[in-house]
Amino acid sequence: MNVNRTTNFRLRQRLHETNTVSDRPRCGRPRCTTQRQDRNLVRNHMNNRFLSASASSRHTRERNNQRISANTVRRRLTTSGLRARRPYIGPILTQRLRHQRTLWAQEHAAWDRIQWRSVVLSDESRFYMDHADGHVHVCRRTGERYQADCVREHDRWSGASLMMCCCTGSPKGAYTLLAGACLDL
Question: What's the CA gap between 164 and 151, in Å, rounded?
Answer without folding.
Answer: 25
